[in-house]
Amino acid sequence: MCWAAVLLSFLLGQNPNEMDYLLRKIPDATFKTSDSSAMHISSWYSKKPVLLTLAYGRCPGVCNPYLLQIRDQISLLGSEKQFQVVVLSFDAEDQPEQLWRLAGFNENSPPPANWTFGVLEEDTRASLLTSLGLKTQMVGGLYEHNTVLALIGEDGSILQWIEGLPGTAQWDRLFKELTSEFVPVYSTLNNTVWTSCFQYDPASGTWRMSWGLLMILGPALITFFIIIILQSITRNDRTKNNSSILIQNQL
Amino acid sequence: MIIQKEVFLVFSMMFIIIVTVFFLVFISSKKIGEFQNLNRKRAIFFFIAFGTVLLVLGVSLPKSPYFLYANDQPAQKVFVAAKQFSFSISKYPIATDDDFNMSAGAEITVPIDEIIEFNVSSLDVNHGFSLYKDGVLQAQVQAMPGYVNRLRWRFSESGTYDILCLEYCGVAHAAMAAKLKVE
Amino acid sequence: MKTFDKKFTLLWLITILIVFLVAIAFGITMRMEQAEMVDVGPLNFYILMTSHGLLMAGVWFVAGMAGIQYILSRYFEVPRWGSVVAYACTLAGVVVLLISTFLTKFHAGWYFLYPLPFYAKGADSGPVLFLIAIAILGAGWLLWSLVLLVTILRKYTVTQALAWHHITGRPGPAVSPFILISFVSLIGVTACLLAAVVLVILYFIELARSGTMSNDPLLMKNLTFFFGHTLVNEMLYLGLAVLYELFPKMAGKPAYKTSWYVAISWNATLLIVLFAYFHHLYMDFAQPVAFQFIGQVMSWFAPLPAACVTIFSVLTTVYRSNMKWSLASLLYFFGVMFWAVGGVGAILDAVIANNLVLHNTQWVPAHFHTYNLLGNVFFSLAFASWFADEYGSEKMAPSMVKVIFSLLVIGGTGFVIAFYLGGALSVPRRVDMYSETVDEGISLAKMAVVFASLYLVGMIMYTVDFTKRCAGQLFS
Q: Of A185, C123, C383, C419, which cross-links C104 as Cys (Cβ 3.0–4.6 Å)?
């Protein structure tokens, strides 16, 4: 079901652009943790970067493999203390412990200190979901939803935003940002721009050549063809004049 | 020595050499004679020029600013947005006109001897973001709408730096400036 | 020799000289404003800047083209209408341009960097008129260069005109360096004018669909400089083509032959010139680094074939030649010298690490004024002098030669040195006044005004003398 929702949004062309979310601030939502204390997200992101994602405990679909993959990838990185993973539930009926299981933790092997699980409080839930571009819909007592992974900077703004399961290149870029590796540029072009030489690839943080580049190559290519055409147009003149060229050269 | 002075020195030297050669040849034109060993001298001339070009490229390309402090961690991010005809400089991202107005005119201070990452963009036309200390240009980057260019820089001198717009952006371009404190 | 070609070339040259004087006056006014000697205000300053830039680029481009047209007409039958249409388009384009800048107050600079035309537009019709001016000029010149290309192709195949048989040693008709360089330059001119066409179309699409569609500033900047840089680069080569034809004869030497290295040089130049413009985008970190590196490599390789071969040829031609110097040969010889000097300034700026502190400082106008004001202009003035000596009523008086040449060289050198010093002192370009940070600019501007005025006096004397000697021919 969840998969269907993601696929559908993709097919309908409603896949939102990362640029719509970059650098936007998220609301400082509150959530309940397993020891029942209320926490602000800012209590984490003001200390270190936060990898924020949302899930819900009864999810029969994507949430479990999604969180497992995040856990796998983060264990590969090794520098776990530099950031905090925050997993929040948008389902008010959830208990934080339910979320643990989605990520492969349980009472015997509880999550380490750099993982935080919590259930969002009613008042700020909707605004947080909107700011992150997370769409949910109740169908038959279960939620259909997309998945979003966002990197939140120390001032609460979205530094990276990935919808769906991140690919290898997307993880690369995420880790680059987490370890402050230098990416000299990023694009904030909006979608009224209809052609571009280079497409900023949010997945890898690099530039790919795009068809707008043809506009730069175009003049040279057209010139090449014009020369060829002119050569064939003037063929008859050349044969006529060939004999007189030598004489004219001596002028 | 600062780069501008080095460049000017190299240029002056080359200027004198070129003018001298041309004048010597010009004076020689009063005499009659032939240029000896034309082909060999041409080949030597060309290979010296070719070698110089390769040498300069090999030395200078790795010094390009795109790799400045690329492997270090910046101590602070500074966001710069340009808009006709002022700069807005903030420690927080400036994405909209509201963000711009909020930090317009505010003076910020950055630490000395630390790597600062400037995130430079424009909200309207192309502008230039340049750092001047005592009238000497230290570094610059373009502020292009739709793109955020990141310049990493380490200030080795404390004091007030002048920020000038270095890309013609309209009628008040010359007056478009801001200040940055380094302590 | 056909009288039409002679008369029409004369018409071109007189028009060019007059427009040049006007454009110099614009330039001096700008420097006076910067020197705080007059107060025209920022808007008028940028209107003058926009007009000065486009007039200068345009006028010396058509001067090069007129030279090519004339020398070609000595060899072949060149269709007249190409030159005539280009003349009409140039006049019309200049008029529309001046209306857009002076009447509708368009002031986005001659290179109209996107999206500035929508902001620095003056009246709403400003950018439309300006783009129409660009379109008229572009269309006329494009047509002209195609006509000249056809003229060459009527005699030679593409590979012959590119002198490939001089490289491989295969049999074929002898191709003079003039034909080779003209052909190479005209191809480049066609390509950059087509880039202008694409640019203008993109602007018009955005104007027509205002608000709903916009262009990528990076793409537009690439197109702008592909057009602008390549145009001013190729116009220098147009002047050089004529130099290759006329200079050896002035020195009493046999005509230059197309040897294998000359052929290779200019074929290489054909390609290199198309990539050098990337150096205008060094400070745009959004441009992929590979392109930046191509920019620096190509900018450094550009002078190797064309400049080195030409400089070496000119020096060896003059060396112990026992030649009689005329204004034409002096201008050619020292034009090449200043071209080399400007080239050094250019490649120093084309190092990315240097560009970090030289980009958009006065170092930029310093180097391009050196090889325009003292290089390309000298080449075209040399052609005009040769033309006047050949067909004018009398030769230029020797004392006149000395006075005019000294004024142009001293005035021009002092003027560009003020710019070089400005660059070394971090003085920005394209500003109507200097803030306290860079107030050295004010005294440098004063120095520039003095020297530019000397140059202007020299040019006025040149124009008066030229018209006096040749105007009779026009109406004979």
A: C123
In the three-class reduction of DSSP (H, G, I as helix; E, B as strand; rest coil), residue A34 is classed as: coil
In the predicted structure, residue A81 carries a pLDDT above the cut 80: no
* Exposed / middle / buried, residue A114 (Cβ in 10 Å: 0-12, 13-18, 19+): middle
Residue B46 touches partner A, C-beta closer than 8 Å: no
pLDDT in the model for residue A122: 86
Decide if C149 touches A, using CB distance below 8 A: yes
DSSP classification of residue A164: S
Query: Which among C75, C157, C202 has CB closest to A248?
Result: C75
Give how many domains chain C has, as a whole number: 1
Average pLDDT over residues A135-143: 84
CA B40 to chain centre: 40
Distance CA C159, CA C36 (A): 56
**Which residue in C73, C134, C70 sits closest to C100, CA to CA?**
C134
Residue of B nearest to C419 (CA): B8
* Mean pLDDT estimate for chain C: 93
Summarised one tens digit per residue, pLDDT across range B142-160 is 999 988 888 999 999 999 9
pTM of the model: 0.84
Contact with chain B for residue C334, Cβ under 8 A: yes
Nearest CA of chain A to the CA of C275: how many Å? 10
Which amino acid does the sequence have at C347? I
Nearest CA in chain B to C34: B174
Residue ranges of domains in chain A: 2-183, 213-249
**Helix (H) or strand (E) run with residue A248 in it:** helix A235-249
Nearest CA to A87 out of A121, A130, A116, A122 is that of: A116
For residue range B99-130, list pLDDT tens digits in order: 788 888 788 899 999 999 899 999 999 999 99
Region A127-142: mean pLDDT is 87
Distance from CA of A139 to the nearest CA of C (A): 37
- Chain B interface includes C215 (CB < 8 A): no
Tell me the one-letter amino acid at A210: S
Q: Which residue has the tokens 């005294």?
A: C443
CATH of domain B69-182: 2.60.40.420
- The CATH class, in words, for A2-183 is alpha beta
Do B150 and A184 lie within an 8 Å CB cutoff? Answer: yes
- Which residue is it, tokens 């230029």? C396
Q: Do B148 and A185 touch (CB under 8 A)?
A: yes
Would you say C120 and B171 are in contact if contact means Cβ atoms under 8 Å apart? yes
The interface predicted TM-score (ipTM) is 0.95
Q: Which residue out of B80, B103, B129, B147 would a mutagenesis test of the A interface target, given it has the greatest number of A Cβ atoms within 10 Å?
A: B147
Interface residues of chain A, partner chain C, Cβ below 8 Å: 184-185, 187, 189-190, 192-198, 207, 212, 215-216, 218-220, 222-223, 226-228, 230-231, 233-234, 237-238, 241-242, 245-246, 248-249, 251
Retrieve residue A184's tokens: 């000299």
> What are φ and ψ of residue B140, in 5° steps?
-155, 165
B74 touches chain A (CB under 8 A): yes
Q: What are the respective helix, strand and coil percentages of chain A, to the nearest 5?
A: 40, 25, 35
Domain residue limits at C59: 3-475
B154 in A contact zone (CB under 8 Å)? no
Q: What is the dihedral of CA B161, B162, B168, B169, to 10 degrees?
A: 100
Of B96, B154, B157, B155, the closest CA to residue B121 belongs to: B96
A158 three-class SS = strand
Rounded CA separation C373/C370 (Å) = 6
Picking from A17, A26, A182 by the largest number of B CB atoms within 10 A of its own CB, the best residue to mutate is A182
Nearest-neighbour CA in chain B from A236: distance (Å): 40
Q: What are phi and psi of A49, to 5 degrees?
A: -60, 145
Contact B147 A189 (CB under 8 A): yes
What is the radius of gyration, based on Cα positions, of chain A?
Answer: 27
Average pLDDT of the residues in C394-403: 92
